[in-house]
Every structure is written in C-alpha cells, then in structure tokens.
Design a protein that fits this description.
Strand order of the largest sheet: 3-2-6-5
Helix content: 40-55%
Number of helices: 7
Radius of gyration: 17 Å
Number of strands: 6
Amino acid sequence: MFQDLKQKLLSGQISFSEALPKALPQLRGKVSDEKLLWLASELQGYSNAIEFYQSNNHGLPPYRIVPGALYLMTPDGALNELKHPYARRTDYFLSAPVAWLEEFARQQGDTSVVEVPELTAFMSASGGGVVCQTQKVELRRIIANFRNEFIALLDQVEPAGS
C-alpha cells in the first residue's frame, strides 16, 4: 500500500492532500505519535505555529522557515505595511497546510503570498489577513523537503520489494 502511494506521489498522480488522509490511518501503530502529529500538521496546518515567534525552542520543522516579508492583505487584495515587531523579522514560519503550499506554488509569477493565520489575530483588528510574501522557490523547497521526509517514512514502514 505504501509503495503504491509513494509511486503515485513521485509520478504526480496524487497530491499530498490526497495521500496523507490515506496514509495516516495505515501508519497508526507503525510510527511514533510524534510522526503522526507531524503528518497531521502538514495536512491541516500547524496550529502551534505562534510558538515560532515566541520561543527559540519551538520544535517546528525548520524546512518551513522562509525568508520573506509580512503584510496585511486587505479584503480588496491590497498589501499594506505592518507596524508590529514580528513584521521586522526577516524569516517566517509557514503554517499553512501543505496542499495550500502546493496550490500557491502553481500560481503565476516568482513570488507568492501565503496566509499566516496565527498572526492575523495579533495584527489585523481592522479586517483582512496577515500574509507572508516569499519567493516561490521557497514553497517548492518546503514541498520537496516534506516529500523526501514523507517518502523516507513510507520506505521505513514498508521497504521496497516487501
């Protein structure tokens, strides 16, 4: 089952948003709870992502940290500068579900705007949402890192030829 899933992922026949719900129940009892939580977070988004901004020991996957800039996206799609201290950073954690990153990576242009919902509550009382503007190459890097780690996990559970 896992090798079939792996082949479909590698050939592009299936996306992570399709593969993860199939794999998660099958992996229960075969991998640690920590790995299951990681996969669930990739599927649904990282609900604890605010920890990245509040602690150096956040325990979040480093491959999801990207260089970029924060903006407030107004309901009409305009990007406005933010005055919050977090907006002065140069790196951000992208907490969005991996399916969103796959979708954003396919859009036109070299840059992408990714929602950062955990910061919206802190910074946008006036409406709209906080977004991180980053290069698309960063989204592709995150997707590739996750794909490699996910496939390695599948290989660990069910080696090729099993």
